[in-house]
Every structure is written in structure tokens, then in C-alpha cells.
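ok so I'm stuck.
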Amino acid sequence: MKDVLTYKNFIGSVHFNSSDRIFFGKIEGINDLVTFEGSTVDELESAFKYMVDEHIKDCEEEGIPLEKSYKGTFNVRLNPRLHKKAAQFALIKGITLNQLVQRAIKRELEEN
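replied:
not stuck anymore, here's the structure
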């Protein structure tokens, strides 16, 4: 698993600054920049949970969405050979490239 924290369906990135000897991160998947830090793992986790709770409270008070909205579209960058193979594979299967990508993502998510 990548270096992340989870709490109340929010994900926080985790990084370490060796010169300052501090752990830090930000809440991912939201419209605002909300950061947290700690000098120990326990402090980092507590700060993350505190900031998630504060973010939820602020959003409720301001009547704004808790999370970034996802429109269902995104760009995928592939090397040209992989792109060609995927397009040909989809054509042979009788599906669109979009359907192939959706199936692959769904399969990957179901396996984990």
C-alpha cells in the first residue's frame, strides 16, 4: 500500500522531510488545500484526523461539498505501442477503447 492514511472515507498523503525531521501530508480528493503534520506517526495520524473533522465541519457550515466532484471523464496517457495494442484488442473484442479501460479499472478495483 502507498503511504496514505484513511479516516471517514478521506485519504491523506504521507511524506517525510528529512531535513526538518517531520512527517506531513494533505487531504486528497477535496477542493481545498488542507495539510497536516507531526513529528511522530501518532502525531501525524492525530493531526490528519483532526483536519478531516475540521474540513467536514467547515464544509457543513459553508454549505459546500466535502469532496471534489468527479465528472466521469479523464485523460489517460499511454505509450503509442500500448495505445495501438489496446485499440486493436478492443476492436477485435467488439467494444470501444473506453469500454476496455472501464473493464480493466473495474477488474483492478475488484481484485483489491
